[in-house]
Amino acid sequence: MYIITHNPAFGLREWAAGIFSHILDTSELFLMDVGVRQLAVMALLALADARLPKPARAPLLLHKPFVVVWNAPTEQCRLRYKVDLDLGVFDIAANINETLSGSNVTIFYHTHLGYYPYYSDNGDPINGGVPQNESLIKHLSKAKSDIDYCIPMKKFQGLAVIDWENWRPQWDRNWGNKSIYRNKSLEIVRRRHPRWSEDKIRKVAKEEFENAGRSFMNNTILLAEHMRPNGLWGYYLYPDCYNYDYKEHPQTYTGKCPPIESFRNDLLLWLWKESTALYPSIYLDYVLKSSTNALKFVHYRVKEAIRVASIARKDYVLPVFVYSRPFYAYTFHVLTERDLVNTIGESAALGAAGVVLWGSMQYASSKSCLTVKRYIDGPLGHYVINVTSAAKLCSKVLCKKNGRCIRKNSDSSAYLHLSPTDFNIHNRHSERGPRFQVTGEPSLESIEAMKQRFICQCYQGWTGIFCELPDQSGKREQADRCYCQCASLSSPAENEELYSLKYFGL
């Protein structure tokens, strides 16, 4: 009798094959029927495949498993101050002229999509104030016009983000300054039924608010997906982790999402099912600068988003595009190199499809333009090239370009970084400023290190430990079609004039 355990340092198929090799050396095998032996092998390989990660949707850009998107209105830097930002380091430089909304990325704020009900800062109701007070049909009619206006291209294939933050669709999550939505909902029911008990009023108010909120959010995104079916539609800040207690308890902060919040995220399955992408946020407060708490904060927020993305669909994991900032929240202090790792690097290693670097109009003032340019030409650009190149390399070496690399152990400290002994990242100066150039080739040691630390999450249409096998489930055609569609997105990183990326054999 033999006891065989799985060594996590090895792939599951290799593990299964090892078990079979062990059996081959035993005399018992020769007593087996050939058919039984084949069934044993098939069972072992099936066991290995059963533990493979759920497939991912094909990437936004062909053969780019992890992208970094610049989404800041910095066009005025060039137009007014003659400061030309080199956005070639980014896979997608947001939109033409660097606007917040356009052919690649479109953000719908609460005043730009239909008749979104909310209360102003002064407590005045806008569009009824609460969702149960506003006509859904009227809202959807206006939303249709707004989508046609903001996204005139019917074949739009970019990121489509709905930014509705005034209220949350779950009653219990409307606290603090959002408690007005609960109070107003209670008033509505109380006026209709003054003789009801407070418990009954609360029960009905909660039901009416949550049902109306769900209808607003679900029907809006369904309409959007019907009108622009190739867009990646989702709500900004969804899912949230609510791990904000780093200020109150910095010494004991774990970063973990409270269990009740993960449970509430599970109850939002109706929203995840209708979304085609998730857009969580990892904006760092300055108090988290270069701290272990910053890593904890980001790690569990992205991990929760990946978890939610995996339960939204039966056949594939939703793409997760993590919203980050190149500066600390509400400041103009650039992220340290350590916090670039804590944000962009952590997101890539956990399996996000990309990071969106969001910025405000503040980025485009005279002094700010120079700060942004120095940062892009320096640490930010250098790190973005490092991570995106390493993700691309790992995808090729480990996953046959048919999947992305994700941590074997999600809580490890493994990152998708180019080995400094194998690769050089240096600036090639030109008329427009520095261009990043990567030269080198991976060593056998680096490749082995990748295999020890990362596994492949195959794209739809592929399976196997190394994504080497066509999937027989009929999804490959769909995945290939997405590749072709998504590859047409404008990507400045593909332009040789913007930056040069040279790999031996890549």
Computed over alpha carbons, the radius of gyration is 25 Å
CATH superfamily of the domain at 109-157 and 166-235: Aldolase class I
Q: What structural category arises from helix and sheet content?
A: alpha/beta
Architecture per CATH nomenclature, i.e. the level-2 architecture of the domain at 109-157 and 166-235: Alpha-Beta Barrel
Largest sheet: 3 strands, parallel
DSSP helical segment count: 14
Quick check: average pLDDT? 86
Disulfide bonds: 77-369, 241-257, 394-405, 399-456, 458-467
Glycosylation sites: 386
Organism: Malurus cyaneus samueli
Enzyme class: hydrolase
What can you see in these coordinates?
With 506 residues, the protein is of the alpha/beta class. Helix content is 39%, strand content 13%. The protein has 14 helices and 15 strands. It has helices spanning 12-24, 34-50, 75-79, 136-150, 179-192, 198-227, 259-267, 269-274, 292-312, 337-350, 366-377, 379-399, 444-453, 476-486; strands spanning 67-71, 105-109, 118-119, 125-126, 159-163, 232-235, 321-324, 354-358, 403-407, 423-430, 433-440, 454-458, 462-463, 469-470, 500-501. The strands form six sheets. A three-stranded parallel β-sheet has the order 1-8-7, covered by helices on one side. Strand 7, helix 10 and strand 8 form a beta-alpha-beta unit. The two termini are 47 Å apart. Its main location: secreted. GO terms for molecular function: hyalurononglucosaminidase activity. It is an enzyme of class 3 (hydrolase). Monomer.
